[in-house]
Amino acid sequence: MGRIDYQIEKYQFLCNDETPRLTRQWADVLEECRQLKAGAEERLRIAMLNVDYVTSFELPFRLLLTRTPQLIADLHDELQINQKEAVFNGKRFGCIWSLQTDLSAIPDDFQYRMVTRIRRLDLAGVTASPYQQIAKDVKAPRKRLRLALESGLQVTALDGLFWFGIQRIAADVQRLRKAGMAIATSETEASDNFTGTIRRIPVYRLTVGG
Prior knowledge:
Strand order of the largest sheet: 6-1-8-9-7
Largest sheet: 5 strands, mixed
Helix content: 25-40%
Shape: globular
């Protein structure tokens, strides 16, 4: 499908009651990542070393990571990462990760929201519009993915993150496959002006007759 360019004109990922200290830490991390044009693992390492704590919910959105659990696992022993459980937006369960040994002062409940304006450009002329329309029509992330695939769209990991709210698209694809959908996986090159990087990312489509 050729390279996809994501032109991010507005991108705000916000946590209710976030402290000014955390806000500054994240701003510094993102600036360092952009200056270094850091890859995924390096972006995560920079965040872990410079932010008091991170959550499994926020990392994909803040750093545009598509393989967060695997990346954390790769860095776990090197950085001696500690963790505890948390609840996100009242219903999602996940983890807090930190290099601190005492995590008792870190909240157990987080409320996040995101506001974006993103342009999508690819060689086939597919824009963000069909993904945005599905996001308006359907609330559940996995149902959004199913509808997109059934509509003939090819869905990258970043499409899923930006418009469907999917943090681990491979896991949702696997569940859809178990439910009987014939989904093919390939890779495509993607660029974005948020991280300033060009990389290979997974892309999914429904196979003919699937």
